[in-house]
Amino acid sequence: MVIHESAAKGFAAGADAYERGRPEYSPEAVERLIAELAIGPGSRVLDLAAGTGKLTRQLVGTGAELVGVEPIAEMRAKLQGVLPDVEAIDGTAEAIPLPSHSIDAVVVGQAFHWFDGVRAVSEIRRVLKPEGALGLIWQARELSRPWIEKLDAIIDRADDGHPRFRTMAWREAFDRTALMTPLESATFRTVQRASPETIVDRVASISYIAAMSEGRRAAVLGEVRTLLATDEDTAGAELVELPYTAHIYWTRPRAVPAGPSTGLVVSVNVSPGGVPKRPVAGARLHWRGLEGDAHSKPEPIHGTPAQAACLYAIEAIERVRADGHQAFPGAYGENLTLAGLDWAGLRHGDRMRIGSAGPLFELTDYATPCDTQSRWFVDGRYGRISARAHPEDARWYAAVLEEGFIAPGDEVHLIRTA
User: Fold this and answer.
1) Residue 108, CB half-sphere, CA atoms under 13 Å: how many?
2) Rounded to 5 degrees, what are φ and ψ at 397?
3) pLDDT band at 64 (very low <50, low <70, confident <90, very high)
4) CB count, 10 Å around CB of 79?
5) What CATH fold (topology level) applies to the domain 262-415?
6) How far apart are CA 117 and CA 321, in angstroms?
């Protein structure tokens, strides 16, 4: 999995500044996350995108077994130097190198906005135990003084569209899928008390600033030094106070209705053609397919009435991922990602009803994989999802018998016809 270029370059170059300049997280915020995620002795906790271990070290006192996953070697080396007893692994949020359902809690500090959200949430759900939990934390500067507003303006001028927490775009992965329960949240105030040069390091640790050429970076940091040296609030100060709001969020894997004939729609996926298809908040399912969806190779290859919708199981996605391939909702072109059904027991002619009066569709045939999906498989071995080799992990086509709207979180009821 290729990580964002600015993140890869900037955090590698800025690891030293990150360690010097980033403040610890609000103790009260971390304490609340520990309580909500039930972190303690006997639990195994993954710090995902752990960086230099800023959040990891605040969890040591819980007595939990800690694992850090961090893709940037320079950041990971800092973590290992500070916390030699913590297992530190090379990996990304989109391809977590841990067994399925082996983790009690996942925490992510100041990083989720860099992730491919749908892939990351799918992977987090895979490694979490069913009763596990996910916690997110960011600390955002409070623009409570004129000098902080000026500092923010310097930082904003250096940004040319990188992912950031404050845009809230990162929430789409949670809002457009039913993989996890709705996010809960809380906020806390904290203050970084540091020397002016530490505040400069704080700015230097920002990925897109650290990734700049030496000349451009020096110019930005020069502006920060000038601001701190001349503003009436900071000039001549040995310690500068930079206030933050700590934002925390927590969620858990969503429970699936009990029973082999009742399931859940975890995502509704569309694309203008090709793969992956991306989750949407919902769409109308009509006899030719989902509104907003299209095919790069339409009828007669795709898109016939007998192929109006392509279905897949999140459990199959997790099994394929466990074999080392890339898999996530929509990756292989399915329109509906479902959970909770006995996928291996499905048969031609089986029907599925969405909710009590939603769309009704009928399984018509297995969907045959092709070169379009090969990019997701080790050595292009897309036969891993063929019905001939692995019927329990194959996709299904369905014809729509009754039209209607479908959204993540809807129940699915399996109706046997024979």
Assistant:
1) 23
2) -95, 155
3) very high
4) 23
5) M1 Pyruvate Kinase; Domain 3 (2.40.33)
6) 17
